[in-house]
Amino acid sequence: MGEEGKVFFFAKKKQKTFGLGVRVRGAAYALYFYGVTTLFVVVGWPWRVMCPQRVLPLARAWAGTVLAGLRPICGITLHITGREHLPATGPALLASQHQSAFDTLVWMVQLARPAYIMKQELTRLPLFGSLLVPAGMIAVDRKGGAAALKRLLLDVTRARDEDRQIVIFPEGTRVPPGGRVKLQPGIAAIAGRLDLPVLPVATDSGICWQRSPLGRTPGIIHIAIGPPIPAYTPRADMLHAIESFWRACESTGFEPGDNSVDQVALTPGGGAPCTR
Questions:
Q1: What span, in angstroms and rounded, lies between the C-alpha atoms of 7 and 15?
Q2: Which pLDDT band, with edges at 50, 70 and 90, does 260 fall under?
Q3: What's CA 239's distance to the chain center, in Å?
Q4: How far are the Cα atoms of 43, 100, 152 from residue 123, in angstroms, in the given order?
Q5: CATH code where residue 57 lies
Q6: Secondary structure (H, E, C), 98-110
Q7: Per-residue pLDDT tens over the stretch 4-57
């Protein structure tokens, strides 16, 4: 594996252990998650044929339903700052940290018309994978070279023209809290092509949602949306600005610097306040 694919830790990595209560909650949530997902896939297969234009709302309903179980089953809630940086309408480009599978779900319910940029392998998942592209997600062949980049730029241009909010993970893989990887430079090419500023997004989702299906630790997942970075910022400066925002959020413990704080429900729209 080359250096770009390595995860570096700047603090000692602790071994994850889960108490009995966390394991029981995790098992209960896993049953809930896969039960809900099976139901939506069964509905989604005929739905994509009969109502292809409604696959995205169905996908948002699925994500909202599986995330809605986090609070009552696992004791996990969501805290967002920086909502004022999101455009009220129209397209947007978000460059998010990626610590857990939670990150691949949350923007389905927090944005009106999300379009995730994801690895092509996900479209090959049995049953579920075939619904991703009809829902407007953008699949990338990470080994496709220049041809894949050209196709990606065409796909994101179409998504922008459809007023989609595009979410990309510049790290290119899940990185645990405390880990570091070299950011992928494609975000700069996408921003320039779309003439859209980049909204950096920091999160600590990996603390509450670990890789293990049993690792759903009670607590608050924080998300911070940063000020827009101009579309034509030089590539190195853009990557530095994104990472600097992420590290600043980590160093302050995601404490807001203003009053634009929302504790939101993990359901579509996400605007209703909730408490732990």
A1: 16
A2: very low
A3: 18
A4: 18, 19, 15
A5: 3.40.1130
A6: CCCCCHHHHHHHH
A7: 455 544 444 554 667 888 889 999 999 999 999 999 888 887 877 787 778 888
